[in-house]
Amino acid sequence: MYTVDIDTGGTMTDALVSGGEELHAFKVDTTPHDYTVSFVGCLAEATKKLGFADIEAFLSKVDLIRWSSTITTNVLGERRGSKVGLLVAKGAEETLYGSSRSVVIGELVEQANVIGLPANPTAVDILSNVKELLESGVRRICICLANSYPENSAEREIKAVIESQYPDHIIGAVPVLLGSEMAPLRHDQTRVHYSLMNAYTHAQLATSLYKAEDVLRDEHSWRGPLLIGNTHGGVARIGKTKSVDTIESGPVFGTFGGAYMARLYGLRNVICFDVGGTTTKCSIIREGQPLFQRGGELMEVPVQTSFAMLRSAVVGGGSVARVKSGGLTLGPESMGAAPGPACYGLGGDQATLTDALLVLGYLDAGNFLGGRRRLNIELAAAAIRKTVAEPLGVSVEVAALSIRDEAVAMMADLLRATLAEAHLDAGDCALFAFGGNGPMFAAFVADRLAMKDAYAFDLGPVFSAFGSSISDVLHVYQRGVDMTWSAQSKDRLLPVVAELQTQAERDFRGESFDPSKATYDWDIDLGESEADITTLRVECKHSGIGETFEAISKALDESAASRRPILGVRLSSRLAIGSYHMKRRSKTVAAEAPVHRPIRFNGTGDTPAPVGHWESMNVGDSLVGPAVINGNTLTCPVPPGWQLKVDDFGNAELSRR
Asked: How far apart are alpha carbons 65 and 235 in whole angstroms?
């Protein structure tokens, strides 16, 4: 039986199909008008490659499908979400409980649709304001009052008034979200921001997810579990997934895939470098685990919660190069997958980073994307000549080098800033490069940052799908409390533990999973405030609530930190499912001698350099720069002074000579 992992990005949708020792990777163009088209396109590619008669026949051999994406990320970034209304306490209409005007005003919610309620509002107060919001076109309403967590009765009372007037069964019903339920945290503004992001993106994500589920069931007779990737690095059924929890889930899975490989290689600190068609993202692996941050910005929205550190720059293969005010700029505009770079021959006439890489000789024009597309170097050169070379008064080749160097500078700046934020030195880290264009820049960026080693992966073009393929079903629950640990407070903490464990067990059963096979990790947050927290972790197997509470009580009794106030309890319940595991490569292939073609690494002119065919290289094979590796899954320039070697797992290790 197979498992299928699909990752929808802004330009390409990737799939990884694993079954026993078999592993197959696929890429199709993302279809932003309907993400299910590219989702099904991946299944169609797998059906054809694996020799099944149709998609239904293939799916009959599939146990589960996991789907991660940047759908919510794109909705937020492009500001094309639902029209949202917000009810807050009077006086907080602009600050949303912060110290200054909230950045989401005018972006995720119009100022006119933020209404301040008086203390103890009457039904007339509530319904007159809701009527005003609905008449302005609002389709979702968030209620976020100050100091409403953990005690949220005031929010629940307002919701009850609204739902009594607009019950679910009428056409005019409007979904009502409570900040205390969207983000069970004490930080008032974080609850508001999370609620707005969830309401703003929910409809677009839900449309794609439920349509995919319907297509699988109704058109292809498949009723297995469709599991959705979340930013915690796990997956869950659609019905157990909040939209806000899927933000950047695709790139985050790349980070978790990187952490897996770091542990496999015995590397302590790694910076992950993911370059796609429109953006470059980077993240940190510290001591073999993804680096999470408490507080910061999620898609430029400040929140005080814990999430994987992920930073980005708007530069990728489709980034448009042009001359402005006598200087070269790259991005933020991108040609995407359609019409794409000029070299695609699909009508694009703007010079892009991909066009420059083709002119420099790094790309194999006849075997792009595994031979699914041929590139036209004449069109690439013409676009660069018109929009970059002639305005700068230089040759096409020098213009292409300038475009490459601008991209390298932007990427290096991103990595340098991220390393500084994580308090790590580049010389103490390895670089993991993946995504469709990551290996293309691995050695260039590592050289710019004076790093010693960089790795490019055989599964690099579908690395986020690989991260998904090693993921488990994961649910995270949390509750705020306010107590100091003592014999008397045990009676107050026990109901919280019981509620969270009962909810986790109920959710697993609702997804047709056995809760007794899951693990349950409890995090107890202790501190004077959420800005100063010590977390005590208690790892448990499934057991009765009494045994679980006894383990938590014992850990608190033995911890010196338990003298501090308990601010919150968090449960991460995890269930292992069918996952792929990386193995050392044992098979060998027929070797092919490198061919030679003109390649330009610097301003001294084109130099005939060896071009190795990736699929013809075996463990231990190496290539000394200047050279290029081309293949179905990997394109990797090896600059002068660098060497590439195939390691024991069939990946490319780049090192300085």
From this structure: 10
Mean pLDDT to the nearest integer, 121-145: 95
Provide the token pair at 135: 């008449």
Residues 47, 237, 56, CA angle at the centre, nearest 5°?
Answer: 20
Identity at 520, one-letter amino acid code: Y
- 328 forms beta bridges with 323
For domain 77-204, which architecture applies? 3-Layer(aba) Sandwich (3.40)
Reduce the secondary structure of 410-460 to three states and give it as a string.
HHHHHHHHHHHHCCCCHHHCEEEEECCCHHHHHHHHHHHCCCCEEEECCCH
| DSSP classification of residue 368 | B
Separation between Cα atoms, residue 140 and residue 415, nearest integer Å = 38
Phi first, then psi: give them for residue 507, nearest 5 degrees. -65, -40
Q: How far apart are CA 353 and CA 317, in angstroms?
A: 5
pLDDT of residue 294: 76
CATH 3.40.20.10: does it fit domain 2-76+205-246?
A: no
Amino acid at 168: D
pLDDT for the residue numbered 185:
82
What is the third-level CATH fold of 473-575? Answer: Dna Ligase; domain 1 (3.30.1490)
What is the DSSP pairing of strand 519-529 with strand 565-575? Answer: antiparallel
Indicate the average pLDDT of the chain.
Answer: 92
Other Cβ atoms less than 10 A from the Cβ of 125: the count is 16
Q: What is the DSSP string of 237-304?
A: EGGG--GGGGTTHHHHHHHHHHHHHHHHHT-SEEEEEEE-SS-EEEEEEETTEEPEEEEEEETTEEEE
DSSP helix/strand/coil, 195: helix
What is the rounded average pLDDT of the residues 502-511?
A: 92
Structure tokens at 545: 């609530």
With 80 as the cut, is the pLDDT of residue 633 above it?
A: no
- Position 361 confidence tier, pLDDT thresholds 50, 70, 90: very high
**Rg of the Cα atoms in the chain:** 26
Say whether pLDDT at 167 is over 80: yes
Residue 530 has what pLDDT?
Answer: 65
- For residue 341, whether the previous peptide bond is cis, meaning omega lies within 30 degrees of 0, is no
Q: Strand 319-324 and strand 310-313: pairing? A: unpaired
Supply the pLDDT for residue 509: 92
77-204 and 473-575 have identical folds: no
| pLDDT band at residue 45 using 50, 70 and 90 as cut-offs | very high
For residues 256 and 135, what is the distance between their CA atoms, to the nearest angstrom? 45
Which regions of 326-382 does DSSP assign to beta strands (E)? 327-334
List the chain domain ranges: 2-76+205-246, 77-204, 319-406, 473-575, 595-656
Rounded distance between C-alpha atoms, residue 69 and residue 252, angstroms:
10
- Separation between Cα atoms, residue 159 and residue 178, nearest integer Å: 8
The three state secondary structure string of 527-538 is EEECCEEEEEEE
Alpha-helical (H) ranges within 449-566 are 463-469, 490-510, 545-558
Burial 128-158 (b: 16+ CB within 10 A, else e): ebbeebeeeebbbbbbbbbebbeebebbeeb
Structure tokens at 399: 């213009």
Strand partners, 484: 565
> What is the DSSP-derived secondary structure letter of residue 335?
-
Six-digit token pair at 242?
């909040």
| Terminal Cα distance for the chain, rounded | 44
Of 578, 618, 617, residue with least CA distance to 594? 617
